[in-house]
Amino acid sequence: MTTNKRQIGAAYEEQAAHFLIGQGYQILERNYRCRQGEIDLIAKDGKTLVFVEVKYRKDRQKGHPLEAVNRYKQQKIIRTAMYYCYKQKVFDAQACRFDIVSILGEDIELLKHAFEMQG
Fold it and tell me: Whole domain around residue 21: which residue ranges?
């Protein structure tokens, strides 16, 4: 039985969500999609709105998961986050940041402030 990439991704996004909840985050959205793109998880860390990209690799054969979040991917996430803020009426005064949860085999790691709005 084959499992498609979306199902695999969903399983690791769920693992990342549980990990973040353990770190004190409150999950607001999962797989937020719009014309601009997709954001895996949107959460609150204290008063900060956090847009989270989840990347999984079973091993380092294709590189570290963090390497997959290149400049192009960052720009796409930023545009999607800006649209989310617009639609949700999130104002400029709201602190926001971009985090990455990387899962390499069994190891899970959180990189806070992974990139900035300027990209």
Answer: 5-112
Query: Diameter of the chain by CA atoms?
Result: 49
Q: Are 80 and 38 in contact (CB under 8 A)?
A: yes
Residue 90 maps to a domain: yes
Summarize pLDDT for 72-111 with one digit per residue, the tens.
Answer: 999 999 999 999 999 999 887 889 999 999 999 889 999 9
What total of structural domains would you count in the chain? Answer: 1
d(C-alpha 9, C-alpha 4), whole Å: 9
* CA–CA dist 57, 2 (Å, integer): 18
At 60, which CATH number? 3.40.1350.10
pLDDT 10s digits, 8-48: 778 889 999 999 999 999 999 999 999 999 999 999 999 99
Q: 64 in helix, strand or coil?
A: coil
**Nearest CA among 53, 46, 61 for reference residue 94:** 46
Judge contact between 54 and 29, C-beta under 8 A: no
pTM of the model: 0.91
